[in-house]
UniProtKB/TrEMBL annotation:
It comes from the Bacteria. GO terms for cellular component: large ribosomal subunit. The lineage of its organism: Bacteria, Bacillati, Cyanobacteriota, Cyanophyceae, Nostocales. The keyword Nucleus does not apply. This is Large ribosomal subunit protein uL1. It holds the Pfam family Ribosomal_L1. HAMAP family: Ribosomal_uL1_B. The gene is rplA.
Length: 238
């Protein structure tokens, strides 16, 4: 099995040149390279000139992908009183108060995004060891600690993503499915680029953008021309 994949990947690697591709050309190539037997995601891997061990060089924020993520996002909400009813009415898949915290402690994980109201955070904090490693711990920066539950639920279901730079300064983001058109993938990628520029950490020195690669889940990495992407003006944003 492994050998078969390496043959497949080897053949694909030979089609990718060692150069900066124009964004639309790169996305067309990404779609061509997605030959796995399942619906692959489109991923971006962006190396930034930051050192996240310094607090003023950390990047953690959200972006709304105009064309959506291509995934159904299951949202859980921890709140109390009428806020639980609000979460239910707004389309949350899982909702509750202390009892939901207990269920998560016992292993319940049937959700992709967890939102909490600020008054519940002292109790949610004890879930840190379970939620932290999975990237599910609610945070104000990630838009997941809020009293506006309906707005947050709708945004995450419509294509809002939380992303952060890892400790080496690289941002890994899924920005759609390979089944999207190249144009739709470009709209999402452009929104991501603008978000990263808009949220440039105050301590970032020198050249902020180092490299950007796109790839399908099982495909090879394709280097994108950063300057072309940043200078592009897309008329369509929805």
């Amino acid at each position: 099995m492994g050998k078969k994949i390496s043959h497949r990947l080897q053949a694909l690697l030979e089609k990718v040149e060692d150069k900066d591709y124009e964004p639309l050309e790169a996305l067309g190539l990404l779609k061509e390279m997605a030959t796995a037997k399942f619906p692959e995601a489109a991923e971006a891997h962006i190396r930034l000139g930051i050192d996240p061990k310094y607090t003023d060089q950390q990047l953690r924020t959200t972006v709304v992908l105009p064309k959506g993520t291509g995934q159904e996002v299951r949202v859980a909400v921890i709140a109390r009183g009428e806020k639980v009813t609000e979460a239910s009415s707004a389309g949350a898949d899982v909702f509750g108060s202390e009892e939901l915290i207990d269920e998560i402690q016992k292993g319940r994980m049937d959700f992709d995004k967890l939102i909490a109201t600020p008054d519940m955070m002292p109790q949610v904090a004890k879930l840190g060891r379970i939620l932290g490693p999975r990237g599910l711990m609610p945070s104000p920066k990630g838009g997941t600690v809020t009293t506006n539950l309906a707005g947050a639920i709708n945004e995450f279901k419509a294509g809002k993503l939380e992303y952060r730079a890892d400790r080496t300064g690289i941002v890994h983001v899924m920005f759609g499915k390979v089944s999207f058109t190249s144009e739709d993938l470009l709209v999402n990628l452009k929104s991501l680029q603008e978000s990263i520029d808009r949220n440039r950490p105050s301590g970032a020195k020198g050249r902020y953008w180092r490299t950007i690669y796109v790839a399908s889940t099982m495909g090879p990495s394709i280097r994108v021309d950063i300057n072309t992407l940043r200078e592009m003006k897309l008329t369509e944003t929805a």
